[in-house]
Amino acid sequence: MTHILLYTAHQQTFGVIHWFFFALVVAGLVALIFYQRRVGRQLLSELSQLDKLKKRNVEYEFVLKAMRLAVWHVDVQKRTVTYDNDFREKLAGYMPPPDTPLTELAAHWDEADRARVLKAYEDICLGRIEELHEVYKTRVWYGTQTFWTECYATVAERDAEGLPLKVVGTSMRIDERKTMEDALVEARNRAEESDRLKSAFLANMSHEIRTPLNAIVGFTSVMPDVDSEEERQQLLDLIHENTQKLLRIIDDVVNISKVEAGKEELVLTNFDLNTALNEIADRHRNDVQPGVELNTAFAASELSITSDRNRICEVVKHYLLNALKFTTAGSITVGYDMPRGGRMRIWVRDTGKGVAVEHQQQIFERFFKVDEFVPGAGLGLSICQTMAHSMGGKVGVESKLGHGSFFWFELPLQ
Questions:
Q1: Which of 311, 305, 313 is closest to 339 using CA atoms?
Q2: How many domains does the chain have?
Q3: Structural domain of residue 9, as residue ranges?
Q4: Looking at the predicted structure, is the pLDDT value of residue 116 above 80?
Q5: Helices marked H in 262-350 — which ranges?
Q6: Structural element, H or E, at residue 58
C-alpha cells in the first residue's frame, strides 16, 4: 500500500513538473512572438525612415542641381575644406581635392578679395559670426579660368563650450549676374553722365545761340544811325558772320536729330572724292588763322567712289572746323588713303593743341567739350560719329597733347 502511495505521489510530482516546463515553454514562445513582432515593427519603421531619407536625399540633390549649387564643409580644427557635392555649370577643374587647407584654397581667390574673404572664414571658424555671405572672384583648381562665386555658410556642429567644430556652406557661379550688374552700373553711370551733359548742353546752347543773336539784333538796331558806308559795310559783315554761326549751330542739331531718328536715308551716288574734298578745303581757306597752312594730301590724282557724298562731306567739314578751331600755328591737311579690303580711310591732320589720352574717347560723345572756353555746342564730333556709323563706318583719333591730332573715319565702299 505504501509503495502504491509513493508511486502515485511520484506520478503527481512528475506531472506538475511537466506542466511547469510546458507552461514555461509556452510563455517563452509567446514572449518570443511578441519580441519578434516588436523587432518587426522596428525594422518596418527603420525601413520607412530609410525610404524617407532616400527620398529626401533625391529631393536634396534635385534642389542642388536645379539651383546649380556646390555643397562643402569646413573642419574647423584642421582648417580644411571638403566639397561634398558640386552641381555648378561644368567647368574643367572646378573642385579641389578633399581636406584642402583653407589657406591653399584662398590662394586661388582674386587678390582684391582674398584678405576680406579669408577673414570672414576665420571669423566664422572662431565663432565671431554665425553666418557667412561673400561674393568674390576665384580661379578653378586645375587651370587658369576664373569665375565669380557667391557663397553662404553657417555653423553646423559645436563642442561642449559652444565653439564651432564644423561649418557647412554652399557656393554658386554668378558670372551672368555679375555681367548684368556691371552692365546696369555702366548704364546708370552713362545715364547720369548723359543727364549732366544734357544740362551742360542746354547751358552751352543757350550761350551759343544767344551770342550771335545778340550781335545780329545789336548791329541791326544801330544800322539806321550809321551814315558812313564803310561802317555800314563792316556792320553788315558782322551780321552776316553771326548769322552763319547761328545757322551752323541749328544745322548741327537738326542733322544729328534726323540721322538718329532714321528720317534721312543714305543717298548713294558715284563721285570724285578729290573734287569733293577740294571743295570743302577751298570753302574754308579764309577761316584759317594767320600762320597756318591748309593743305590736301590725296593718295591718287583722282578717285571715283560710290557712297553718300553729303555725309562724307559733313564729316570732313566738322573735322576741318575742329582743326581750324584748335590750330594756331603749323598746318592742317585733308587727305585719304587708298582703299583696302573694300574700305577706305579719310582723315584730317593738324598741328594744333592735341587731345589728352583720357579724353580721346569722350570727345565723340554728344555735348562733350574739352575746353569750355572755346566756342561751339559740343556736337561737331558727335555728328561725325553718327554720320560715319550711319554709313557702316567708324571714327577715331590719334593724338598727343601739344603735338597735334589725326582724326579719321573709315567707310565701306559700295
A1: 305
A2: 3
A3: 1-67
A4: yes
A5: 273-283, 309-326
A6: helix 2-67
